[in-house]
Design goal:
The protein has about 650 residues and is α+β, with helices and mostly antiparallel strands. It has 19 helices and 20 strands.
Length: about 650
Amino acid sequence: MRKETGFYDIVVVGGTPAGIMAAISAGRKGCRVMLSEYHGHLGGMSASGLGKSDVENKDAIAGLFKEFTRRVLDYYVDQYGQDSENVKLCRGGYYYEPSVAELIFDQMISEEENITVLLNHQIEQAQLESSKVTGVVLRDRSSGVLTALKARIFIDATYEGDLFALAGAEYRLGREGQEEFNEEHAGRIFFDYNENVFLEGSTGEADARLQAYTYRLCLTDDPENSYVLKEPPSGYNRENYIKYFCDLKEGRLGPPKVFKEGHGYYPEHFDTMVRVFSFARIPNGKFDVNTNPRPLGFPFVGENYSYPRSGWREREKIFIRHRELALGLLYFVQNDPEVPEEHRKIAGKYHLPLDEFTDNRHFPWQFYVREARRLKGRYTLTENDVRVGNNENRTRIFYDSIISGEFPIDSFPVSKESSPDKKVLEGYIGMLEISPYQVPLRILIPEKIGGLIVPVAASTTHVAFSTIRMEPLWMGIGQAAGLAACIALKKQVEIADIPVCDLQKLLIDNHQVITYFDDIEIDDKAFKAVQFWGTKGFFDSYHAGTKEFLNAEDLTLWLKIFHDLCGTQDPDRVDEETDEISISLFSEIIYNIGKEYGLWNSDMPYESFFNQSDLRPSEWLYNSREHSLPVLRGEACLALYNTFFASKKKEYNQSDS
């Protein structure tokens, strides 16, 4: 049976956090959106055990993700009171119970009248016309009924890249070799995560291996809320876990070299079998529990190799296998007689919560797909884009940046082979520090397939994906994808052809960080302007210096960039012998630019500009002062920002008329 359901502006396939934020950002701009999800719940990993937001630098990621965290915080304040322990444990909304994350996502979606949701639907087919996606066919997992959806634009927000694969877009799977993109940490690698050095056996060779998948458990130490595993779970085999005894004996279950608060480190667990897990405390007596990838006994590697290209029946078998391994490991450390009694006693404190995942036997429903297909897009983000290069002061600048990324490179093992010195499993790159970087829109756009944008399984190498694969960042990328789709619809162009500056202004107005600086606060009057010009080359470091005097050298560079962006000749000449640029001199430059772009009548006296123009100095100065005094860098950025978008607005008004 097949059901036709009409036409939408945008169809989002995948109710992941990125898919949710794509739908919300588009819905809020007036687009009619259909959001479909394979499971019976929205929220992906963030609502399925990953209760600790993977953010190292909270100033780097904002937008809808910050709205999500604010709502989480408000929930705990409303439920338990401002001074409660649960509010403290939610850490400003960055830590949360799975059920609370799902509740917040559901609330955000329900508030948008333009969004329709289909749960329990798996994608079966993509329909194309002239290499452009025009429709998808979904199957109801309960009834088997097929639903055909038509739309003007599609967003593939699946972890697996299922939609773009069905549409015939090219993609990568596995690891690139070092030589392909000249990436230091690419390919076959044994890497000492404590000393950040390569170990014997590293070759950098490419292969098709994937970093391991797991389930992210939610456990509780509240006896009144505990579902206790009283007997071995289905498929239990202790042989899967006995290598952990070597890890215990040889010290690989000890403390980290560097202790970081909130990273799941509990001294009570060090040098015990409980250290096979990493615990991060979240509200209401619960824990976000990851499976520690550092011991050599880690049993999940290789179990996922066939997953990305498998059909849904085969995937379900892989789900079951990983569920058995995860529950088996928990049962093992709690009950195996060879595990020291004191260790079993500690492990016995933690159980599945009765009030989580109540329709799935208290076990997470979302499989932790850390990496599957990766789109081949208009640009491929590499390790070299997310790390500061030699003789550089910041990571690569992208004119089409849509968000700032910041999380360390973090790849789970891809092989059960250990380094010759037994320090690490092959392919594990643990929390390799990088600097904040820009994410270009082009990695979301397929090379050849139109009508489609991809915020999750984006165009990166394996190494770069190991930093971009974090839910907070994906939420921001999803937000950008939704807004990009709206602009494409309004302009009636392909996503690859949208005015990038318009998207960036929308993102900035919606509190996205598209350029990271370490010296500017969000309440700085020039914050938006600095974000924008940070994608165009105004700054070659993480220092914006908004309250510093503007010098002639920088002004000359900025004016050249400004006019290049506008596609005009640079008529401005600045005496580079001038140490400081006065407010009056800079105002005259803005006045002349405004005349050039017809922002005001060419007969407007210069004096009137100071008092009547929307771009008058009082609009962009931090404070009122003598115009003979130096102009500040932030003020100049803001004046040029306002001028640029005033000219764009006039251009659009003329074209509309």
